[in-house]
Amino acid sequence: MQLVLASTSPYRKALLEQLHLSFECARPEADETPLEGETVEDLVVRLAELKARAVQEQFPDALIIGSDQSAVLNGEILTKPGNRENAVQQLLSASGQRITFQTGLCLLNSRTGESQSACIPFTVVFRTLTLDVIEHYLDIEQPYNCVGSFKSEGLGIALFERFEGDDPNALIGLPLIQLNAFLRNEGFEILA
Predict the structure, then answer these.
(1) Which residue ranges form the domains of the chain, and what is each CATH number?
(2) Given the residues 31, 68, 132, 166, the one annotated as active site
(3) Could you say which of 28, 50, 62, 120 is the most buried, measured as most Cβ atoms within 10 Å of its Cβ?
(4) CA geometry: angle at 15 spanning 35 and 114, to 5°?
(5) 31 is a catalytic site residue
(6) For the residues of 5-25, what is the DSSP string, one character each?
C-alpha cells in the first residue's frame, strides 16, 4: 500500500523521511475551528483524523497519516506567532513555565476506512528567560511558524531546563514511536 502524509509541514515531512520510507505528501483541506467545549486533546485527535480523511478520495489504496498539534499556556491555546512581536510575547509568557504539547496522530487505511488514533503528550520546561536571551534567539532562528515560538530541534534547545515525555518527535509534530506501532498493526513493518 502507498504511504501518504496528509500534511505540507516541512517538519513532519523531515521526521517521516528519517524512517527511510517512500511516501507522498498531500495538502489536506480541513476546518480547524475548535468545537465548543472541546479539550485540546480531543481537538488534536479529531483534526488529525479529519486531515487524513480529507485526502482519502485521492488515495483509495493507502495508509494515510494525519497529525495535528496544540499546546496550552496558562489556559490559552498557543498558536504559531507569525511575527517577532508575538514570538517575544509567547516566550516571555513561557519563561520558567511548563508547557505540554498535545500531538494528535491518525493512521487511516483508505481501503477499509478504518483508522487508529492517539494523542501523545510531550512537556517542555522553560528556563527563566531574559528579554535579551529571547531577542538573541529570535534573531538567529526566527521560529515564527512554530507553535510556542521555538524549534527544539535547533537552537531552541537552549531555552529549556528539560523535556518530559516518551517521544521527543511528538514535540516537532509527528510522534514516530506511535506511528511505527500503528503501521505494524497494519502489517507494515518499517525494518522488514
Answers:
(1) 2-185 (3.90.950.10)
(2) 68
(3) 120
(4) 50
(5) no
(6) E----HHHHHHHHTTT---EE
